[in-house]
Q: What sequence folds into this?
């Protein structure tokens, strides 16, 4: 369970190894009764379940290890639920099922699938659980068992999207549960909402019709939650204030509050439950309980309780679900106080003073306690019962409640509450030492998933937008706090603070990211703003001495404005030279006392002024002392100063002795938090059609284009279709009516008119009295149209799309062009980016006045999008790219703000030169091509007049047929177009030549319209103004990453940025909050958002956003993207269903995860997919790797897994491929852990990295980092040999299987992975092929052999890694000997430790394998023998080197590697 704050750090759960699994009693049972691979299973025996439960689960005190084993052995799927029925139901049966389901939730794997397959007994099972949860005495069900049941119930309440669960849970939380209220309270609540009175009477009527037994059953269910609350209060009261305490009781209480919290935080459960909870006064009982007063054991309980109190008073109307405004909350508060005053005035003369006071005088806690404190218990009880809070006092009897309870009940109900938004605005944004090291709020990396935590959860639904933002705000803040904690622990422990002999601090080490502070002074505390009690700003000066290497000094001097640093105070207690032990708590060892955040304003120059950032070079400063002016957090400063003055605490700001900086890429948390806080302070206007969907309510398909009132009937599909046949194939099931009958004219582009089903269209039909005919609803009217001629030059021809889209891709494009929410699920290789680009292009042409915002997760995805957009017919002056990634664009062009400004200015000069040429050709005098303005006058008076005159001459007059030759002879711009391909006019028909003339004029006119647009750039002089104008006015397609949007929201809104459409790529990889912020980058117009379309493209079956802390990822479900949540809620999606990336056989390894993913025709037809992989018998293979030198996986640091045997095997196969002639850049090596990635890189460096014959693979990286990329051949190492680890997440498996186009070779411990239930569909295909590597060494790349054919060459079977390594070594030597052109020594292959035993048979095998090699290599062989020992030493050294590698758990430290590693592969 969650550790109390001061206890030892939590231990990691060690997963059992394969050998341990096999030795276990459970496994032996499984092999007889339920293991999937056993053919002859024994018959079902109830005693087995009893035995397993008592001996394995209860006796081990519900040890996670035992439960993990059971769950992994498919106990639930193949034994428990399969055989469950009311006849055999027993306590052990129920408890076993609950344990398995809870374990599935802990492991984050789907839990309800089994129940959905066989749902008939679930209602009975659920009723048994309810009964068991209410058992009073511990003898039947121990408290630990009841805690397991509570957790199971909590999982049920959080799975309302599952129909099976919802049907059972609904009966517990609907209106009839108000039966449990006191009669007076019930009456009062029904009076508030007249509609409810009607419903209540209906319920009563229906109850009377039921038979006795059914009615009792229904009453039991309705009263379940209120009885559970009463039971909990009894357990809570049994905990003493001091002395020994049963931790089972504490855990039960914590889990119970968690359940209450989850019920309160979801509207469907909260709607009726909140009143029942309020009526039970649970929160008051908890605050007065002994557990809340116990500091150590009650710490987590109190934190959970604070969260519960917050949600019970949440600013929402429970019945309607509408958020309450500040005024409405105040009104509710005033009503409560005045009703109390009326009661006092009428019935309690001793409270006259209170009754006649004004509200503000009596609504603080102190004044209420002063007024009500002196009253007797009986009087207090009477007041409470008058307010319908308690049942009336019995005649002549005394109150059974304690006075403390009665007083707290009245006070807590009527005290003035600080509003949520005020609380938020007073909250410091930087974490302090109190939060950073609090295990309940920011758990360590070893979060096991057992205990509950005081953290908000992101589930399917949220109460209001405020609640939505608040939960995300808190989680984002804590996730960044976790990263900050890792950085502080890393930097401070590197500095080795020790106690000096004179009592001060001495630093025995140094850190790149931290420096000792020489002096720190607060230089300004500004006055507060009106109505606030914290200063407007607080600034301080920090001086440090940068006596360090030049590159590190440059990094410190390069700190920019708004960079965040941390000020730290350490007071070490350990004498000089003490070693730091990473296993002991960090704070005690280093003596860390305070941590405060600050934001850099700038470095000071020699005169003490801040050096401003700008284009001018920075002044060179003398010496090593540098002083920075920093902004402190005013809220934090105010809290610290209040604490100093009121409690006499020391002044924190006089104690700092370390300043720490962070990597700029990971340091944007403060800007994002400020953005979220600003959103909560503004009326964030989400479009009406999206509001309910974002909160998870209402009809999930209500924003689909087919239900939008403003659906567009006719759309121009521009170049989407390649031909009329392509169009017909794209709309199966529709009748296609083409407006022209001549097949020669039926050529794209097409305009299509759809039958619009929408609110408006239907009404009109009904008025006419005619109903829509069914065939009309399925008819599309297609109108081919000709794009007007754009001019005589070749570059005037529009660029065309060349992709033949499938009908599902067309549906996605059509949905994206219509208003509303479009969600496209794009499995690997299905052309997501092409669809996105076509939607953007079509919107650009259909709605030239609208602006589209493109948001992606990574810069790489943005670059791919941009490269494809540039290939379409989009004027590049309308493209703009914000953020820092534009440097990586593989084009000559610069799409950043300043790049675009330069482009516009250059284009302006180019166009003005054209105007000059035109002026010359027309023989006009004067300087008309000087500015855009003069060019405009020239167009109006000279060009237009000539054109109008020409048109009047050429047009047919008075019935005369026009003359073809006139078109050319009278044309006024011949001289200007002299540089176009001649002749301009064909002279065949009047219409054709006239269209050409019009085209020429359009070309000229476009020059002047562009110059008119660019005129603003002449008036705006500074680059900044020009770039702002570009962003706000000129650009039509604006692209940025989601992080950039979150950082720059404030600036964009201030500029008046506007957009109509959002397209998000990779949206299943974007954090929920980072997906939401881009919807609100503009100010609403008249209280409405102008957003018309939101297109999200992603794949929720691939990996989610990266969350480094396991607790936030699992417990709070923070890794759920908005895209995934929408899919879970049931928002309609367009699923792309044809992949064109991989061979069909490779696609089968992952297509089972998608609805119906097929292959595009070219995957079967193109030669590269049809030929075999040279040198390999199979196109994919799973290769079993046993222990090497007795070692499988190793873990030198937490989650830093390595497996030397697999690393060597993978590299040997890579070298083998290169020697056969495979290009190294077409091979990538992937693995599932960072540790293994580093190990493989090292092995490559040693074996072949600098060898020109072999080289390096395209990439060596982790599966997580390679998402979104692909290569022809993938070698994959799965590392683990003891437990499956995070590959159990099917999404990671899908990514791993779908990166290869032509060949996939997986190295793994097969016995471990083949038993894993979630991975069965892929591993059953992999294990159907031999588990030893089959190679064809004499076949060179490329081969002519067809895939699936038997090779004519000899096939070799490789049994293990040393054999492969030896084989490759000999093959290399043979090549060197035979070519003689190049001599480079190769490190000998890794040798087994049992050299003498194993080398003999291997060599004899190899003799036959490589004919003739042996003679050539004999001299080399002798050297091998000498070098094996050294090689063994080398390996040991290498493993040691890895021990010191990562800076801290899961963090990468590959400074030599260009790719930034920002995820933790855990």
A:
């Amino acid at each position: 369970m969650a550790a109390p704050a001061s206890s030892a750090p939590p231990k990691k759960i060690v997963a059992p190894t394969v050998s341990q699994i096999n030795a276990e009693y459970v496994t032996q049972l499984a092999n007889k009764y339920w293991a999937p691979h056993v053919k002859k299973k024994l018959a079902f025996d109830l005693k087995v379940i009893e035995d397993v439960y008592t001996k394995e689960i209860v006796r081990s005190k519900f040890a996670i290890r035992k439960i993990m084993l059971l769950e992994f052995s498919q106990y639930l799927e193949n034994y428990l639920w399969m055989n469950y029925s009311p006849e055999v139901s027993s306590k052990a049966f129920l408890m076993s099922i609950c344990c398995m389901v809870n374990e599935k939730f802990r492991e984050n794997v789907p839990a309800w699938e089994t129940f959905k397959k066989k749902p008939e007994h679930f209602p009975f099972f659920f009723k048994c659980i309810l009964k068991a949860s209410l058992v009073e005495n511990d003898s039947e069900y121990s408290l630990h068992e009841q805690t397991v049941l509570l957790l199971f119930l909590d999982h049920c309440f959080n799975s309302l999207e599952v129909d099976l669960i919802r049907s059972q849970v609904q009966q517990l939380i609907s209106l009839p549960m108000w039966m449990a209220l006191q009669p007076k309270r019930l009456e009062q609540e029904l009076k508030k909402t007249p509609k409810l009175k009607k419903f209540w009477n209906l319920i009563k009527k229906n109850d009377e019709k039921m038979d006795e037994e059914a009615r009792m059953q229904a009453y039991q269910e309705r009263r379940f939650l209120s009885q559970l609350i009463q039971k909990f209060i009894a357990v809570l009261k049994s905990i003493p204030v001091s002395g020994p305490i049963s931790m089972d009781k504490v855990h039960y209480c914590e889990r119970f509050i968690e359940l209450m919290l989850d019920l309160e935080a979801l509207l469907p459960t909260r709607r009726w439950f909140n009143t029942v909870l309020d009526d039970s006064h649970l929160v008051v009982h908890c605050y007065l309980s002994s557990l809340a007063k116990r500091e150590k054991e009650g710490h987590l309980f109190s934190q959970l309780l604070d969260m519960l109190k917050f949600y019970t008073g949440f600013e929402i109307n429970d019945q309607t679900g509408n958020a309450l405004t500040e005024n409405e909350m105040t009104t509710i508060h005033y009503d409560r106080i005045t009703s109390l005053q009326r009661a006092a005035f009428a019935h309690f003369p001793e409270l006259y003073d209170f009754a006649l006071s004004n509200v503000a005088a009596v609504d603080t806690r102190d004044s209420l306690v002063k007024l009500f404190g002196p009253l007797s218990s009986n009087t207090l009880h009477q007041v409470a019962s008058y307010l319908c809070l308690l049942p009336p006092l019995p005649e002549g009897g005394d109150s059974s409640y304690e006075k403390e309870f009665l007083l707290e009940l009245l006070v807590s109900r009527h005290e003035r509450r600080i509003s949520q938004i005020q609380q938020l605005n007073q909250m410091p944004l930087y974490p302090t030492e109190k939060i950073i090291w609090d295990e309940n709020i920011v758990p360590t990396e070893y979060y096991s998933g057992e205990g509950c935590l005081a953290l908000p959860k992101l589930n399917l639904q949220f109460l209001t937008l405020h609640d939505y933002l608040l939960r995300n705000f808190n989680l984002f803040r804590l996730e960044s706090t976790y990263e900050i904690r890792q950085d502080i622990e890393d930097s401070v422990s590197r500095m080795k603070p020790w106690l000096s002999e004179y009592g001060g601090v001495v630093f025995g080490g140094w850190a790149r990211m931290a420096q000792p502070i020489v002096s720190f002074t607060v230089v300004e505390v500004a006055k507060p703003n009106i109505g606030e009690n914290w200063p407007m700003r607080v600034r301080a000066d920090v001086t440090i001495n940068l006596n360090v290497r030049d590159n590190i000094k440059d990094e410190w001097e390069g700190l920019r404005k708004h960079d965040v640093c941390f000020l730290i105070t350490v007071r070490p207690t350990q004498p000089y030279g003490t070693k730091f032990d990473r296993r002991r708590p960090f704070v005690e060892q280093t003596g860390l006392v305070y941590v405060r955040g600050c934001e850099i304003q700038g470095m000071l120059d020699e005169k003490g002024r801040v050096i401003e950032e700008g284009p001018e070079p920075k002044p060179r400063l003398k010496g090593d002392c540098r002083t920075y002016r920093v902004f402190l957090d005013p809220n934090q400063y105010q809290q610290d100063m209040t604490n100093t003055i009121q409690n006499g605490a020391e002044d924190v700001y006089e104690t700092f002795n370390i300043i720490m900086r962070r990597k700029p890429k990971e340091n944007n948390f403060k800007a994002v938090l400020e953005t979220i806080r600003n959103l909560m302070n503004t009326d964030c206007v989400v479009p009406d059609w999206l509001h309910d969907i974002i909160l998870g309510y209402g009809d999930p398909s209500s924003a689909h284009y087919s239900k939008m009132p403003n659906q567009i009937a006719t759309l121009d599909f521009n170049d989407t279709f390649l031909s009329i046949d392509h169009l017909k194939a794209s709309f199966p099931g529709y009748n296609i009516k083409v407006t022209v009958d001549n097949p020669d004219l039926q050529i794209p582009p097409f305009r299509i008119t759809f039958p619009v089903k929408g609110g408006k269209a239907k009404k009109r039909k009904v008025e006419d009295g005619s109903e829509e005919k069914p065939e009309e609803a399925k008819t599309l009217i297609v109108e081919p149209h000709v794009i007007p001629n754009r001019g005589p030059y070749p570059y005037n021809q529009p660029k065309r799309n060349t992709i033949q889209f499938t009908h599902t891709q067309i549906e996605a494009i059509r949905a994206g062009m219509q208003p509303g929410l479009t969600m496209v699920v794009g499995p690997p290789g299905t052309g997501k980016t092409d669809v996105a680009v076509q939607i953007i292009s079509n919107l650009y042409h259909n709605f030239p006045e609208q602006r589209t915002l493109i948001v992606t997760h990574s810069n790489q995805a943005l670059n791919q999008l941009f490269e494809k957009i540039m290939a379409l017919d989009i004027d590049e002056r309308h493209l703009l790219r914000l953020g820092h990634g534009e440097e990586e664009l593989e084009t000559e062009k610069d799409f950043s703000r300043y790049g675009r400004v330069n482009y516009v200015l250059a284009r302006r000069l180019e166009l003005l030169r054209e105007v000059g040429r035109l002026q010359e050709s027309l023989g006009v005098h004067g300087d008309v091509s000087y500015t855009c303005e003069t060019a405009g006058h020239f167009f109006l008076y000279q060009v237009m007049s000539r054109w109008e005159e020409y048109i009047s001459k050429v047009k047919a007059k008075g019935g005369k047929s026009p003359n073809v030759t006139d078109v050319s002879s009278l044309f006024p711009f011949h001289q200007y177009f002299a540089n176009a391909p001649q002749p301009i006019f064909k002279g065949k028909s009047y219409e054709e030549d006239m269209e050409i003339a019009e085209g020429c004029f359009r070309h000229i006119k476009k020059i002047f319209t562009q110059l008119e647009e660019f005129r603003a750039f002449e008036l705006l002089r500074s680059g900044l103004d020009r770039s702002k104008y570009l962003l706000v006015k000129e650009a039509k397609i604006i692209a940025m990453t989601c992080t950039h949007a979150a950082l720059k929201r404030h600036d964009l809104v201030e500029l008046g940025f506007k957009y109509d459409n959002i397209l998000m790529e990779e949206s299943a990889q974007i954090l929920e909050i980072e997906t939401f912020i881009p919807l609100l980058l503009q100010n609403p117009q008249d209280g409405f958002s102008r957003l018309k379309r939101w297109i999200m493209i992603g794949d929720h079956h691939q990996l989610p956003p990266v969350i480094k802390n396991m607790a936030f990822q699992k417990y709070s479900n923070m890794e759920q993207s908005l895209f995934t949540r929408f899919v879970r809620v049931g928002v309609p999606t367009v699923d792309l269903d044809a992949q064109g990336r991989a061979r069909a056989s490779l696609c089968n390894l992952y297509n089972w995860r998608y609805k119906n993913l097929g292959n595009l025709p070219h995957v079967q037809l193109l030669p590269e997919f049809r030929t075999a992989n040279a040198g390999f018998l199979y196109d994919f293979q799973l290769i079993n790797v046993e222990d090497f030198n007795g070692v499988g996986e190793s873990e030198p640091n937490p989650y830093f897994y390595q497996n030397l045997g697999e690393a060597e095997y993978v590299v040997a196969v890579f070298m083998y491929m290169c020697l056969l002639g495979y290009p190294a850049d077409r091979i990538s090596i992937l693995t599932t852990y960072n540790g293994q990635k580093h190990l493989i890189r090292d092995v490559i460096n040693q074996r072949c990295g600098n060898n020109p014959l072999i080289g390096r693979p395209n990439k060596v990286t982790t599966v997580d980092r390679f998402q979104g990329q692909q290569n022809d051949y993938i070698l994959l190492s799965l590392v683990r040999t003891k437990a499956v680890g995070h590959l159990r997440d099917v999404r990671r498996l899908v990514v791993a299987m779908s990166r290869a186009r032509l060949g996939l070779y997986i190295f793994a411990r097969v016995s471990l992975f083949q038993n894993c239930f979630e991975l069965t569909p892929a591993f059953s295909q992999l294990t159907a092929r031999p588990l030893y590597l089959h190679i064809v060494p004499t076949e060179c790349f490329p081969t002519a052999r067809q895939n699936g054919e038997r090779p004519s060459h000899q096939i070799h079977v490789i049994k293990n890694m040393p054999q492969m390594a030896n084989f490759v070594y000999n093959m290399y030597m043979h090549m060197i000997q035979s070519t003689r052109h190049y001599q480079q020594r190769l490190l000998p292959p890794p040798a087994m430790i049992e050299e003498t035993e194993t080398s003999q048979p291997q060599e004899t095998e190899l003799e036959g394998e490589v004919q003739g090699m042996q003679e050539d290599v004999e001299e080399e062989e002798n050297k091998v023998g000498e070098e094996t020992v050294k090689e063994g030493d080398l390996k040991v050294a290498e493993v040691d080197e890895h021990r010191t590698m990562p800076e801290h758990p899961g963090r990468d430290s590959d400074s030599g590697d260009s790719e930034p590693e920002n995820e933790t592969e855990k």
In short: The mean pLDDT is 86. The first helix runs from residue 18 to 23. DSSP finds 59 helices and 30 strands in the chain. The two ends are 21 Å apart (CA to CA).
